[in-house]
Amino acid sequence: MDLACGSGVLTEQFKRDSIQVIGLDSSERMIDLARVRTRSEPGLEFVRDDFRTFQLNRKFEAIVSSSNSLNYARNLTELSEIFQTVEQHLSDNGFFVFDTITEFGMKYSNEKYLHVDLGSSRFVIRSVYNPQTQRSVASVILPSGIETHHRIKIDKIDVSKATHETRLKIFESFHYPNFPSACFFVLTKAY
Ligand SMILES: C[S@@+](CC[C@H](N)C(=O)[O-])C[C@H]1O[C@@H](n2cnc3c(N)ncnc32)[C@H](O)[C@@H]1O
After folding, report:
1. 53 and 130 belong to one structural domain
2. Whether residue 80 is found in the same domain as residue 17
3. What are the pLDDT digits (tens) for 124-141?
4. 14, 26, 150: residue to mutate for ligand 1 pocket, most atoms within 8 A of CB
């Protein structure tokens, strides 16, 4: 499962690698975009649902959430809710893989302008991090308007705490050498 799949770029890649996959996102716009973008790829399934509460009555060998999607939880209680929901959908030997922006990363990009040029699209991101609330607000300035993204910081200690109500445990975690702006996690079920 590609959790918080956005426009389905990774979901599509999994399918091309012959992995049976389902994409889930809460944004109707993103799900519509994912369906339109991948319409030539038969057998791809996208559902609109919330990563805190989805109930698909299915188990997955791997659940992946890329590009800091879990930072969109509103607090650590919600992160724990996501973990509990993921746990219900993960097969016994399954992996939950995700990346997060850490507090270091949020402080590093605080009040900086990031200019992104993808050729077909260009935009500017300006993030402001509040160390008291441990949240960042990012304004994404696009030709079509301004998007606002609210995120919490997620460090290894936060992931560890959020697993407490679950059987999930950190199997592995790592970050860029000398630059811990993002952290990558693999969680498995503990026995
Ligand atoms: C930074 S985008 C990443 C999208 C995709 N994973 C990728 O790598 O391109 C974050 C995604 O999280 C989704 N999201 C935010 N809150 C969510 C929620 N409560 N439940 C499910 N998806 C959510 C957003 O709609 C958005 O598509």
Report:
1. no
2. yes
3. 999 999 999 999 999 999
4. 26
9 lines ligand 1 (CB under 6 A): yes
pTM above 0.85, yes or no: yes
Model confidence pLDDT, tens digit, residues 80-94: 999 999 999 999 999
| Mutation test residue for ligand 1: of 3, 9, 27, the one with most atoms within 8 Å of CB | 27
Q: How many structural domains does the chain have?
A: 2
DSSP per position, the chain: -EET-TTSHHHHHHHHTT---EEEES-HHHHHHHHHHTTTSTT-EEEE--TTT---S--EEEEEE-TTGGGGSSSHHHHHHHHHHHHHHEEEEEEEEEEEE-HHHHHHTBT-EEEEE-SS-EEEEEEEEETTTTEEEEEEEETTEEEEEEEE---HHHHHHHTTTSSEEEEEEEEETTEEEEEEEEEEE--
